[in-house]
Amino acid sequence: MYNAFFKRIFDIIVSVLSIIILSPIFIAIPIMIKLESQGPIFFKQRRIGKDAEEFLIFKYRSMRIDTPNVATDKLTHPEQYVTKVGKFLRKTSLDEIPQLFNIIKGDMSIVGPRPALFNQYNLIEEREKVKVNSIKPGLTGYAQIKGRDLISDEEKVAYDLFYLNKISFIYDVKLIMKTFISVVKSEGVKS
């Protein structure tokens, strides 16, 4: 049975192997970020995790340091804030790979609902109503492959609930494979 213990073991194994395989990228990206712009390499942001507890998510910085701290889809002209390197990182989802450390730390899982920003009150509330916040958020999830930035909060919650009711090892592996295909095709990326 694929319970929380086995899911956690799977998360750790996949995260450690991914960090080893992607180690050249972990070296190249900080250099690219620093060559283009001033500011930190990493971006930390308050997100909502399991049981609606806050944690700090790690990402490579893809936007200017004066960007308002809201979800990208809530910005009027998000493209004006994204750096050139950031555009590439976001399109390829490479800005997300530092979250492998969030997974090892135990804040996140490989697969689960994407963690809401601390100020996405409607999304948090709707997830709470259907118990989606009872599981760890993920690096990827069903909503990610069903539209990512292009779907409404209501659709995200429906997809998250679908995942919650279908969690299994096979389903997680299937979603990881679908995510890889979606990333290669740059599907669902708004900016």
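(the above was protein one; protein two follows)
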Amino acid sequence: MSDGFRETAARRLAAFGSVAIEDRPGTRRAAVVLCVTEQDGEPGVLVIKRAYRGRNAGQWGLPGGRADEGETPEITALRELEEELGVALEPSDVLGRLDDFPASSGFVITPVVAVASAPVRPVPSPDEVHSVHHVPLAALAADGVVNWLAQPSGPPLLQMLLGPRMTVHAPTGAMLWQFREVVLLGNDVRVADLLQPDWTRH
């Protein structure tokens, strides 16, 4: 990964100032990682489809999961990345955070942005991951990827159109959209109020 991208991404994240949601009684914490790595010389972010079992069965997601007692979001995100995809990154590979997202499942999810210093070869854990996909950063930043679907009442529904069979909604879609806007395009957007489809509660 080029030093130029790493420096630009770190600078934009530092200037952005992520919003953290304070703990309340019953708050459950989770963290995910937007892992940027190169494949065939092209930088992209790793997106997974979860195994067709358990929580979030068959849904699009980012590597991550529930925080263990005493863990920081960074530790959780990197631990889950290694457990789910066999990808081991160092704490120095972490560039920053995006906004905490209050998922309708009851979790507060912290997205952590990390850049692999060398190409990685994901080996998905079949118990947790059905498939892993490398989404090129150029494709994520392209026109036409972001779609706002009007609803009969209330705010529109965000859809990230990442492929013919890859339409990603919030929470994961919200994190990918904020990553695109803040890290790739240098814009300031917030995501906590984005609509989530009912089926993401499970």
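Reviewer note on protein two: The helical segments are 3-16, 73-85, 137-140, 172-184.
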